[in-house]
Amino acid sequence: MSLDLTDITLTYPDGDTRLTALDRVSLKVPKGSLTAVVGPSGSGKSSLLAVAATLITPDAGTVTLDGTSTTGLSRGELTDLRRHKIGIVFQQPNLIASLTAAEQLQVMAQLDGRKPRTARNRALELLESVGLADQADRRPHQLSGGQRQRVNIARALMNGPTVLLVDEPTSALDHERGAAVIDLITRLTHQQCAATVLVTHDRTHLTAVDRIAEVHDGRLSLPAAVAT
């Protein structure tokens, strides 16, 4: 088991009271599987992703990543855990305008202390895996929206994470490109043997995921696995 959320409760201040964003949520995601988390706006999807990414500490409950409990870890230890264990695909690619596609990925490895040549080779390997081998030296303004999102996905995989967290990856894409991105995430989840959580409000492209979890008013339900 690579990602294990157990009895997670998260609240936020709301005037004189507190608003419950997550209410005793439990979710286990095995390596090499993709769980889609769906629900209406404000249901708790983004909060769940933030807790799983260790960006927010819950009021109660435990987060375990690849056998490591995050309870009691310092800010520095959590940063190190994210760098080595977690890949995050943000809703907007937020690529650096002055860097090529390959350089967007290389920066991640260099922050981890890897040699430039090793980082370059890993970046080119990942760009090939997302179908962008011929776009390695292009900058963001030279890429389409779908291509930029593919760079975003490859960047999240640069340091070989065991957990991949994906936030609304199709929100800025048309139907065809959105379907292609979901297919790509599904394929890479299996190839990289990552435990993937995909947060989305769009059920259109979810026929190939391993499981769909639904969030309503901060509570999580887990129907049966999706038929392929």
UniProtKB/TrEMBL annotation:
<dbReference type="InterPro" id="IPR017871">
    <property type="entry name" value="ABC_transporter-like_CS"/>
</dbReference>
<dbReference type="InterPro" id="IPR003593">
    <property type="entry name" value="AAA+_ATPase"/>
</dbReference>
<dbReference type="InterPro" id="IPR017911">
    <property type="entry name" value="MacB-like_ATP-bd"/>
</dbReference>
<dbReference type="InterPro" id="IPR027417">
    <property type="entry name" value="P-loop_NTPase"/>
</dbReference>
<keyword id="KW-0813">Transport</keyword>
<keyword id="KW-0067">ATP-binding</keyword>
<dbReference type="InterPro" id="IPR015854">
    <property type="entry name" value="ABC_transpr_LolD-like"/>
</dbReference>
<dbReference type="Pfam" id="PF00005">
    <property type="entry name" value="ABC_tran"/>
</dbReference>
<keyword id="KW-0547">Nucleotide-binding</keyword>
<protein>
    <submittedName>
        <fullName>ABC transporter ATP-binding protein</fullName>
    </submittedName>
</protein>
<dbReference type="GO" id="GO:0005524">
    <property type="term" value="F:ATP binding"/>
</dbReference>
<dbReference type="InterPro" id="IPR003439">
    <property type="entry name" value="ABC_transporter-like_ATP-bd"/>
</dbReference>
<dbReference type="GO" id="GO:0016887">
    <property type="term" value="F:ATP hydrolysis activity"/>
</dbReference>
<dbReference type="GO" id="GO:0005886">
    <property type="term" value="C:plasma membrane"/>
</dbReference>
<dbReference type="GO" id="GO:0022857">
    <property type="term" value="F:transmembrane transporter activity"/>
</dbReference>
<feature type="domain" description="ABC transporter">
    <location>
        <begin position="3"/>
        <end position="228"/>
    </location>
</feature>
